[in-house]
Amino acid sequence: MSAPIARPQPTPRKAGATAQPAPTTAATQPGARRQVAPERVSGAQSVVRALEELEVDTVFGIPGGAVLPVYDPLFDSKKVRHVLVRHEQGAGHAATGYAQATGKVGVCMATSGPGATNLVTPLADAQMDSVPVVAITGQVARSLIGTDGFQEADISGITMPITKHNFLITDAIDIPRIIAEAFYLASSGRPGAVLVDIPKDILQAQTTFSWPPEMRLPGYRPVSKPHGKQVREAARLIADAKSPVLYVGGGVIKANASAELIELAELTGIPVVTTLMARGAFPDSHQLHCGMPGMHGKVSAVAALQKSDLLITLGARFDDRVTGQLTSFAPDAKVIHADIDPAEIGKNRYADVPIVGDCKEVIVELIEAIRADMATGTTTDLTEWWAYLDGLRKTYPLAYTRPSDGALSPEFVIEAVGRLAGPDAIYCAGVGQHQMWAAQFVNYEKPRTWLNSGGLGTMGYAVPAAMGAKMGRPEAEVWAIDGDGCFQMTNQELATCALEGVPIKVALVNNGNLGMVRQWQTLFYEERYSNTNLGTHGAVRIPDFVKLAEALGCHGIRVEREEDVEAAIREAQSINDKPVVIDFIVSDDAQVWPMVAAGTSNDEIMAARGIRPLFDDDELAAEPAVIHEAMEREQRVVDSAAATDSEDNK
């Protein structure tokens, strides 16, 4: 038996080098850098050559029969590093995390049938959050398509409604062109997920490779430059507004427009709110930032939208988690809606001034128009508006209660992670209570430092996304903030991290339950806790996450006391040769506040259990004078629950 052949390793990125978003030339517009003369290759070689010409440095995937021809030339590539994941879902989320952290297209690969269908959830996830991802899947040979052949699935049909576009290649000569088109579609206009399905016989066929190919995308003409008349009309509305707000969505980050947003806000003095997908687009420390709006947003941010007379909407889509009951959302506000995707404008809320264009270009032109108005003496006095919002910021800051028995509060843990890791770290969250706490209690100062599954809400996102982010930006400290429910869905990718040398750090917020579901059962189902106890708490602890971490090649730490939190985080920060998992045992009765119950008006926001902010003359709202009493009552509830748990565990 011959000795195994070691594959060539791609040139590692220099230490400290920062991965930057790909420019529109090169990776997203093929052939901008060099011409490649036609040469004879196999279809599989053509795939790898196209990826190399598109400057792809990392692919996440698992080989299998239909896609196996690609893995042979991939073995020889000195430019493309393949990361062998443990599940195709992990490959998809890793590609998403890579793309979110770097701004480049994330790439994943799978075989036909179950391999391809395992990518469905991450593709839907990337599409909903407008993340540029290209998935390349093997397919059964053309002669077997439609015969229910072994490992055959119509992945093109399956993914049609959940991708921006997909392709089934039927001629090997089309491989370079279609892969180039896939990357262009994924990264231009509103970014999204694109799938390329390639039959095995196409991969094995001989063909001609040349570069750059001529793309054929008739009808696809994304508009980036806004219409000047619409921008001037927007500037006029801003000048007339008495209580405007900059309603900022993830499109600002996608457009790399954070600096321009800060300039616009400082020029006008208008309050800023950043949605869950826009955390980091505007610095949390900035005095003009009112926080995150939405179901679990800050009271001041929710009020800024509800009481506004003008919503300046930039790269946001009026998602139901932000608007609450749509018919009562911002009832007195006119709307300026700027978005790269014309389909989003007017979809959920009528736009008085619709602007189709790239957020950066829109903001730049809006700044120019506002400056022109200011030159004529046009000014806006927002003193009363800010007095109202500042009052809410002071009265209803983000806060949490801490159990008096010494049990860990999850908010304290996440706050400590954010404080010690700092604004340059990247934070990836799963879905549920820990996601909301991570959005609330970590201060985000820079774009592309907060990664999460906002639209689809995919449990299991955090660990593989953190892996992808760390591989895209190896110089950054990357934390996966995960819950014990989410963590058990994709923790196998920690083995990938250990073997590939990807030292992510996991803050496991272990409350022993499906926390957000339990919270809803507490509030809306009379505390009938049906199927939410995961058995990871107390004396049982199945699984033991520290032992599991060690079995997966990681360093495991368990923390149960507040005084040990900082030391554990610093220990994790000192270990950079393997992943680290910290199992934080936290109270199972902690809840996420503020909260707007699903389907209700934002006017019904509760700052905490039993505390409803005073909006205008609402007789049902709590007066600020009774807040202290209500908070003491909440503390007694938490202490009582903690005491009961302690007694049960004896």
From TrEMBL:
This protein's UniProt keywords: Amino-acid biosynthesis, Branched-chain amino acid biosynthesis, FAD, Flavoprotein, Magnesium, Metal-binding, Thiamine pyrophosphate, Transferase
**InterPro entries, alphabetized:** Acetolactate_synth_lsu, AHAS_TPP, DHS-like_NAD/FAD-binding_dom, THDP-binding, Thiamin_PyroP_enz_cen_dom, Thiamin_PyroP_enz_TPP-bd_dom, TPP-bd_CS, TPP_enz
Residues passing through the membrane, by range = none
Pfam families named among the record's database cross-references:
TPP_enzyme_C, TPP_enzyme_M, TPP_enzyme_N
What Enzyme Commission number does this protein have? 2.2.1.6
Instruction: Report the PROSITE patterns cross-referenced here.
Output: TPP_ENZYMES
**Cofactor (UniProt):** thiamine diphosphate; Mg(2+)
GO cellular component terms, semicolon-separated: acetolactate synthase complex
Q: Which CDD domains match?
A: TPP_AHAS (cd02015), TPP_PYR_POX_like (cd07035)
Gene Ontology BP term (one): isoleucine biosynthetic process
**Catalytic activity, per the record?**
2 pyruvate + H(+) = (2S)-2-acetolactate + CO2
Annotated cofactor note? Binds 1 thiamine pyrophosphate per subunit.
Thiamine pyrophosphate enzyme N-terminal TPP-binding domain boundaries: 42-156
Thiamine pyrophosphate enzyme TPP-binding domain: residues covered: 430-584
Which family does the similarity line name?
A: Belongs to the TPP enzyme family.
PANTHER family under this entry?
ACETOLACTATE SYNTHASE CATALYTIC SUBUNIT, MITOCHONDRIAL (PTHR18968:SF13), THIAMINE PYROPHOSPHATE ENZYMES (PTHR18968)
Q: What is this protein called?
A: Acetolactate synthase
